[in-house]
Amino acid sequence: MQDRHPSHRLPWLRLSAAAFLGLSLAAGLQAQTLQLRLLETSDVHMNLLAYDYYQDQPSTSQGLSRTARLIAQARAEQPNHLLLDNGDLIQGSPMGDVVAKQGLAQRAHPALQSLRLLGYDAANIGNHEFNFGLPFLKQAYAQAGFPVISSNLREAGTGRPVFAPSALLRREFKDEQGRPQRLRIGVLGLLPPQILQWDRQHLQGKVVAEDMVQAARREIRRLRAGGADLVIALAHTGYDAEPQPEGAENRAGDLARLGGLDALLLGHAHAEFPGPAFARHAGADIRHGRIHGVPAVMPGSWGSHLGVIDLRLEKQGGRWRVMDSQGSLRSLRDAQASQPPATPDSALEALLQPAHQATLALIRQTVAEAPRPLHSYFDLVQPSEALALVARAQRVYAREALRSTRWQDLPLLSAAAPFRSGGRQGWDTYVDIAPGPMSVKHVTELYPYANTLKVLQLSGAELREWLERSAAQFRQISPDQTEAQALIDESHPSFNYDTILGVDYEIDLALPARYRPDGKRLPAVTTHRISGLRYRGEPVRDDQRFLLATNSYRAGGGGNFPGTGPDRIVLDAPDENREALLRLLKSGHAFEPEADEGRWTLKLPAGAQAQFRGSPAARKVLPADGRLRWVQDAPAGFAVYELRP
Fold first, then answer.
1. Superfamily assignment of 365-643 in CATH?
2. What are the structural domain ranges in the chain?
3. Is residue 277 exposed (0-12), middle (13-18) or buried (19+ Cβ within 10 Å)?
4. Short-list 384, 375, 442, 437, CA closest to 620
5. Which residues of the chain have pLDDT under 70?
6. 561-610, pLDDT tens digit by residue?
């Protein structure tokens, strides 16, 4: 029978079809949602085991073998994951030195063995990877077993990439409906172009390093054109508060503004992002772990933290897009929590035992006797015998090397900076050597880097500005403020605080710094903090000529000190600074100061209360003159000390 009322049924049919289609689309949309977790380590610096070789004892605050437990926990929580390393892996602890000195021959590097055991998906090259030379670096990473990336590093002659400029990882994950989804994840890697300065002796004429932003822009386009669903940057670079110029060292903010990046994994600065130190940085969202809207993390150093980025992805129009994200850090040791630190991974510990035992054998060799305690607890605020020992060793080495040259009669000074001085490195990162036998471990404790010794020629004016640049370590202290004021600017790394052996000088902290912590000159500041600069009792003249013993990092421009660069080097020594220190210790004359070593002091306004964070252990070595005093214990394991005028 013919339907008499077709017009009444048709709208219902249409509604049913539309409703069914809507339900189908909704179900389909729901099925195209996926959670992905990115895990990052960076700046492990050969701290593969939970062992402090400088103290020759186990550690609860460092070591990839402990970080491995955090990795396992994060993986168990989210099966969809990638594990990535962001460089500065093969150098930085005595184990790294032992492996480099022994050579690899046909053996795999312990650091790369460790990453393979833990199942890393890709790794970036950092700046310290070059400290042992390019051939060793290539050999170390040759047996990685996963993509090793460097997007802005190329051979000088051919322009060919030294390592793969990027990788397209093809992975199968399960969406929220349990259905398999295939994703193509592009990974690019970036390092500071300053490697050409810092390791000039290893890299000159061999490689070129492009600006990080330029290289990232190119690789993002290439990866997207190759079908990448997501693009991740392993960027061995820090995050400055302001936009940086082309070729700068810390370009995280500029990279985040590029567009086309889905996540930014950072390193190099040994800082912790997200964290309160970045609260005022332009574009920083420390609540969600984002920089200019891009998910980002930076996991400290030495395996102290695991970086975690959780991404919520949706497939729209055939393309996966990041709809939400959360960047966070997981710490080996949470000072606010009651749970014990992560236990070491037993398989990784077993793998590393041969390298560990070889390292212990080396560091325990006795080389000298210390007549007094050597420590770095107060290196930033008063002259230190530990720091003077390093400077003295450089000076003795340089004097002998320059003998019978046209430079031998010029005044020879020596610059040294504290490498282990707490602050953002942690309350337990100090030199502390008891009187008695000194071993190789103490040499590496005093000088942990594989820098080589250099001597520069400076004018008196440049010497003064060198010290002004160094004095950016301190905040300006107001004479009118009655409450306590912070003395040390912890955004200024202590390895850029040079003290100079051979001259007398005073740092007037009532005056503003002439330089920013990154070494950039502040043109508006016309005053000078450095006063009373004298050599052998006589005022230093601007046109006077000096020689300054330093290291390859500083001579190549590291820290942006005035008067540096290849054209200033008069002695390009092949030996490491710590080799010079080892020689002096073995000579038996290490603790015999020379008459003209000079002295420096900090000048404070009358009545000022200038305070700084230090180690609680420093109370045992407070100087007898009463200028330094303990104030109170503080959070995160620190104590507060006060320097009096």
1. 5'-Nucleotidase, C-terminal domain (3.90.780.10)
2. 38-356, 365-643
3. middle
4. 375
5. 1-31, 334-340
6. 999 988 899 998 888 999 999 999 999 999 999 999 999 999 999 999 99
